[in-house]
Amino acid sequence: MDLSNPNSFRRQVAGAAMIVMPLVFVLAELLHARFQTEAAKQLTAVADNTGRWYAAHALILLALALAVPAFLGLVHLLGRGRTALGHLSLVA
């Protein structure tokens, strides 16, 4: 990773985030306890698996943090011709 060139660094960070973010989301989904339709069963499932529940939500938070450079990298790929469209797509 070349830290001296800001354009190269930004592209490499965005590319890494685009690859790692979906993998972290999948890992969090696999780790997450199943949702129950009844509140009492859901609370029991959370109480029985607190560590697993916490780890899954920490991974989801990490994946959401990785989504920021990934989406900004995608907007940057649009180039100067479609900048407004790219920024509009982030808002919508």
Describe the structure.
This protein is mostly helical and 92 residues long. The chain has one domain (6-91). It has 4 helices and no strands. Helix 1 (6-31) packs antiparallel against helix 3 and helix 3 packs antiparallel against helix 4 (83-91). The model has no long low-confidence stretch (mean pLDDT 84).
Number of strands: 0
Individual helix count: 4
CA radius of gyration = 18 Å
Overall SS class: mainly alpha
**Shape summary:** elongated
What's the mean pLDDT score?
Answer: 84
Q: Give helix and strand order, one letter per element, not per position.
A: HHHH
Percent of residues in helical segments?
over 70%
Beta content: under 5%
What is the rounded distance between the termini?
Answer: 33 Å
Give me some keywords for this one:
92 residues, mainly alpha, 4 helices, 0% strand, elongated
Short note summarizing the structure:
With 92 residues, this protein is mainly alpha-helical. It contains 4 helices and no strands.
Topology summary:
Layout: H1 6-31, H2 39-48, H3 50-77, H4 83-91
